[in-house]
Design goal:
The chain is an alpha+beta fold. Helix content is about 20%, strand content about 10%. The protein is built from two helices and four strands; from the N terminus they run αβαβββ. It has a two-stranded antiparallel ribbon. The chain has a two-stranded antiparallel ribbon with strand order 3-4. Strand 3 and strand 4 (about 135) form a beta hairpin. The N and C termini lie far apart (about 65 Å).
Length: about 140
């Protein structure tokens, strides 16, 4: 659009919105300024329309897969918080977990970006490191 209108740049200036002043003709004509503004607004409108036509929001299934499990009298069942590969704690790169200083267990390398609570409970504490939470 700007080329069609014969836009000229009359001064070396910065970029951004302050650059529009560089399109003002020293003789007082404002055609270059008007065409440059039309070009910028047109580009914004076209990019908005293209984004609306092409962009597809990723649907994430944040709900855990429901599995019916029955516990024996007096027992509690703790399900996996994520789907993925189960590895021993000794293979975890964090020394606190690998040394089992925080207790015995396993680690899960997740396949999906969704981790859910393994049982109904309340988050009662989040560790400062952000690496663990206490569920009660």
């Amino acid at each position: 659009m700007a080329v069609v209108g014969g836009t000229r740049y009359f001064n070396m200036g910065g970029q951004g919105i302050f650059c529009f002043t560089c399109y003002i003709d020293p003789s007082g004509k404002s055609a270059s300024l008007v065409w440059s503004i039309i070009a910028v607004v047109g580009a914004m409108i076209l990019s908005f329309i293209a984004t609306m036509l092409v962009y597809k929001d990723k649907k994430e299934d944040n709900e855990a897969k429901k599995i019916e499990v029955k516990a024996a009298e007096g027992e509690k069942i703790v399900t996996s918080p994520a789907t993925g590969k189960v590895i021993p704690l000794s293979e975890v790169k964090d020394e606190a977990f690998a040394s089992e200083a925080l207790g015995k267990g396993v680690a899960i390398v997740p396949e999906e970006g969704c981790v859910v609570a393994p049982f109904d409970g309340t988050v009662s504490m989040v560790f400062d490191t952000g690496k663990g939470e206490l569920l009660w």
